[in-house]
Write a structure and sequence with these properties.
Dna Ligase, domain 1; disordered C terminus; alpha+beta; 7 helices; 2 domains; 165 residues; three-stranded antiparallel beta sheet; D-amino Acid Aminotransferase, Chain A, domain 1; globular; 7 strands
Length: 165
C-alpha cells in the first residue's frame, strides 16, 4: 500500500500484519538496497516508526512515494514491469527479480498487448524457469495469478506490483 504519513503506515501494517517491508518507490530508486531506500523485516510499531522516520524524507527528493508491504519469506523474487522500447514501443518485462535482476539479466520482453501464449512463452524462456516450479520445499508459482498480473500491468492497471505467487 502506498502511504503518505506514519498514521497510514501503521494502518497499512495493521491491515497487512507483521512482519512488513517499507521502501521508497520512485523511478530513481531502482537499487533500493544500495541506496538505503528499504527496510526489511519490520516486526512491530516501534520498528516501523524508526524505519519511517529514516525513509520518509527520501521520496520527496526522488519524486516518489513510500510503499508498505508484507515481508514475504522463503519465496522467490520475480520482477515484472513495463517499458517502452525505442524501436518496438510498449513492452512488458518478466524475469528473476530482487538483487539479482541486473546481475543475472534473466528477463523476457514482449510487445503489448499480451496474450496467454505470450505469458507462457515469457515464463518458459527465462534461464531460471525451473524456479517457477516446485523446488526445495516451495510450491510452484501460481501461473494463473502471474498471467493476470502481467496482463494487468500492460493494461495500465498498475505500474509496479508486489505479489506473493
Amino acid at each position: 500500500m502506498l502511504i503518505e504519513d506514519l498514521d497510514e503506515a501503521e494502518a497499512a501494517a495493521d491491515q497487512i500484519g507483521y512482519p512488513i517491508v517499507i521502501k521508497v518507490c520512485a523511478a530513481e530508486a531502482a537499487h533500493k538496497t544500495e541506496q538505503g531506500l528499504i527496510d526489511l523485516g519490520i516486526n512491530d510499531k516501534s520498528e516501523l516508526k524508526q524505519a519511517y522516520k529514516r525513509l520518509s524524507p527520501k521520496p520527496r527528493d526522488l519524486g516518489g512515494e513510500i510503499l508498505v508491504q508484507a515481508m514475504v519469506m522463503d519465496s522467490r523474487e520475480l520482477v515484472i514491469g513495463k517499458t517502452r522500447d525505442f524501436h518496438i514501443g510498449p513492452c512488458v518485462m518478466f524475469g528473476v527479480g530482487g538483487i539479482f535482476t541486473e546481475v543475472l539479466a534473466d528477463v523476457s520482453l514482449r510487445m503489448t498487448p499480451l496474450t496467454d501464449r505470450d505469458v507462457q512463452e515469457m515464463t518458459g524462456e527465462i534461464k531460471s524457469r525451473k524456479l517457477l516450479e516446485s523446488v526445495r520445499g516451495l510450491k510452484a508459482i501460481d501461473m494463473e495469478m502471474l498471467c493476470r498480473c502481467l496482463k494487468a500491468l500492460y493494461r495500465g492497471m498498475a505500474t509496479t506490483m508486489c505479489i506473493e505467487l
